[in-house]
């Protein structure tokens, strides 16, 4: 149900009407009544070539082939906005779920950022501990290379 037009991933008005449980005509009427809520990055009308491409690539939309009206294409933001201007029961429920999804998404991003900060702090502590250990190992290695003072009985080599 998602198509790519003009660099946007979009859904077509006929598919959205089915999803929201309203006739396509009613959907378009609500859009026209609330056109200020649908800037071009939310919704745009397909031109004839785009409509022909859509009908050619998608068999279920062949009904649009002989329609004199070009379909409307809604981006992700347009789909969310559409759910807020339609008054069907399904559209209202969908709008509520969209808002909940955005709230969960923001909470997840916040949690992810907090987790990232904790990981960075832990990484800094580990780096500090490894530096300390490496310094100690280097010091031991340098001490090992120094000539040792002999222990035990001394033998006079001149005799």
Please describe what this structure looks like.
The chain has helices at residues 13-20, 24-33, 48-57, 76-85, 89-145, and strands at residues 2-5, 8-12, 43-45, 72-74. It is of the alpha+beta class and 159 residues long. The protein has a domain at 2-87. Helix 1 crosses helix 2 (24-33) and helix 4 packs antiparallel against helix 5.
Which helices and strands occur, and which strands form pairs?
Layout: E1 2-5, E2 8-12, H1 13-20, H2 24-33, E3 43-45, H3 48-57, E4 72-74, H4 76-85, H5 89-145
Antiparallel strand pairs: 1-2, 2-4, 3-4
Which bin fits the share of residues in helices? 55-70%
With strands numbered from the N-terminus, the spatial order across the biggest sheet is: 1-2-4-3
Tally of DSSP helical segments: 5
Number of strands: 4
Order of helices and strands: EEHHEHEHH
Shape call: rod-shaped
Largest sheet: 4 strands, antiparallel
Q: What proportion strand?
A: 5-15%
- Structural class of the secondary structure composition? alpha+beta
Low-confidence parts, pLDDT < 50 over ≥5 residues?
none
- How far apart, in Å, are the first and last alpha carbons? 102 Å
Q: What Rg is obtained from the alpha carbons, in whole angstroms?
A: 35 Å
| Residue-averaged pLDDT | 83
């Amino acid at each position: 149900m998602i198509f790519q037009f003009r660099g946007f991933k979009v859904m077509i008005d006929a598919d959205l009407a089915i999803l929201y449980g309203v006739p396509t005509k009613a959907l378009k009427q609500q859009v026209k009544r609330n056109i200020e809520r649908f800037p071009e990055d939310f919704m745009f009308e397909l031109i004839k070539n785009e409509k022909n491409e859509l009908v050619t690539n998608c068999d279920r939309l062949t009904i649009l082939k002989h329609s004199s009206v070009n379909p409307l294409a809604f981006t992700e933001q347009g789909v969310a906005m559409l759910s807020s201007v339609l008054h069907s029961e399904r559209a209202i429920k969908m709008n509520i779920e969209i808002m909940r999804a955005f709230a969960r998404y923001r909470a997840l991003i916040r949690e992810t950022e907090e987790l990232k900060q904790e990981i960075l702090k832990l990484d800094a502590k580990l780096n500090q501990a490894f530096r300390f250990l490496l310094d100690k190992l280097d010091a031991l290695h340098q001490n090992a290379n120094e000539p040792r003072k002999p222990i035990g009985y001394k033998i006079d080599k001149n005799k």
